[in-house]
Amino acid sequence: MTDAVQQLPRAKLAALAREYLLAGHMIDRAGMPYVVKEFGLPAMRDVAIEEWMSASPVYTRRIRRALGFAGDDVATIFKGMQFDIGAPHQFMDFRFTVHDATHGEFSLASCGALMDVEPLGEEFVVTMCHHIEDPTFDATASATNPRARMRPVHRPPRVPAGRMPHCNWLVEIDADAEPLTEPDGARWLATSRAANVTLSTPVVNPEPGHGDDGYAGAFDPDLRFERFSHPTLVRLLDEIALQGHLLARAFMRAVERRSDRTAAMRLGGHQLPGVAGLTAARLARFLGTAGGPDGVARVLELHPALRPRAYVAASVERAGDDSIVVRLAPCDGLDEGDTLTWPAVLAADGCDAIGAIARAADPTARVERKEVGSAPAWSVTFDPAQDATVAEEVTLASFSTGAAFAFRPSNATKR
After folding, report:
1. Helix axis angle, 230-258 relative to 27-39, nearest 10°?
2. Is the pTM of this model over 0.90?
3. In this structure, are strands 167-173 and 103-111 parallel, antiparallel, or unpaired?
4. What is the pLDDT of residues 222-243, one digit of tens each?
5. 178, 242, 337, 384: which is deepest, by most CB within 10 A?
6. How far apart, in whole angstroms, are the C-alpha atoms of residue 250 and residue 248?
7. What's the burial of 159, exposed, middle or buried (CB within 10 Å: 0-12/13-18/19+)?
8. DSSP label of 206
């Protein structure tokens, strides 16, 4: 059967790629409230630093290989950032300028992450914009060149209030600088099945009139996903979904290192349904679905938490006219040698991520967990009398401005 992503037209795939990037960015909105609640703000800071320093170098190298862009200059660093769930298009409105091979800068004309934390007060702003960004920006850059550094010109707290752009950073590659060492977490994550899973082969036959297959050419500071061919966009969506799994795995390991495996699974069990429900609501709007079995099945098929299929062997099947069965078969995500993965959290009894997705797409959905052989399964039925309650995890995640964020049309100018 043809994969649901592959069935989408090219323009829809390009728009879905922006949704996937934003979904990946929302992962912290779902997980971090529970870290703060259980361990406090300093622990949240440290977990955030460790998870991003672990995941970003790993998936940056994956995207470089997938799109065929090599190099170690500033332009190549910026290329990687354009496909990073840490920098979803428009929500994190990056403006890049390359001065030469070793110097550049970027600003955020608008920062959705700042809009989320600014109402919480200066302590939260400084934690994110200073303590977390300093080491994690450098870790991202060092995946391309370990002698690269990112340093702020200005950043929040905004003085004066309402200052625009929200921040401005210089990027410099200094041949005499001491090279940064690979973060311990990145070395650990690089050995995982998630980091090494084989997806579709990079595409080499572009569609006429739609640019080249990859991104080996010149850096485009105003990159839009519409430039890529249909096969390349399919690969990109898988890579972006995989970034979310890498970040979640790094998150749970960071929690485990500060507590234990039980706490890591517990917080992962809050993180997954929270971001899953938020993302499902956005996908339902994106697809224009009115719910029902067809609409809910469509959202489940396209949901990035259940993709890529090479890592998460999830299947969504219609069972009669008014029900759906979701199955999770043995897969790399269940075979990492530990339980620090979303598939493992999903397989563990008690995680209601499938329910969060289904109810976000249709509040009348009822989800019952079943077992089919050695693989877990969920039955989705529909009851108009269903109490349309929203899980606490989804409510907390949806406080983010990303929950209702509206993308500009693809042909709209940035400036």
Report:
1. 0
2. yes
3. antiparallel
4. 999 999 999 999 999 999 999 9
5. 242
6. 5
7. exposed
8. P
Count Cβ atoms below 10 Å from residue 88 Cβ, excluding itself: 26
Distance CA 36, CA 123 (A): 13
Cis peptide preceding 165, ω within 30 of 0: yes
CB 21 within 8 A of CB 88: yes
Residue owning tokens 């799994």? 245
Per-residue pLDDT tens over the stretch 330-366: 999 999 999 999 999 999 877 899 999 999 999 999 9
CA atoms within 13 A on the CB side of 385: 0
Conformational region of residue 402, where left means phi above 0, alpha means psi within -120 to 50, and beta covers everything else: alpha
For each of the domains in the chain, give its residue range(s) and CATH number, in order of start: 39-224 (no CATH), 243-403 (3.30.1380)
Cα–Cα distance measured from residue 132 to residue 134, given in angstroms and rounded to the nearest whole number: 6
- Quote the percentage of the chain above a pLDDT of 70: 95
Segments in the chain below pLDDT 50: 204-206, 210, 415
> In the sheet where 148-154 sits, what is the strand order?
92-100, 103-111, 167-173, 148-154
Which parts of 70-161 are beta strand (E)? 92-100, 103-111, 148-154
Q: In what order do the strands lie in the sheet with 324-328?
A: 314-318, 324-328, 375-382, 365-372
| Residue position matching structure tokens 């082969």 | 201
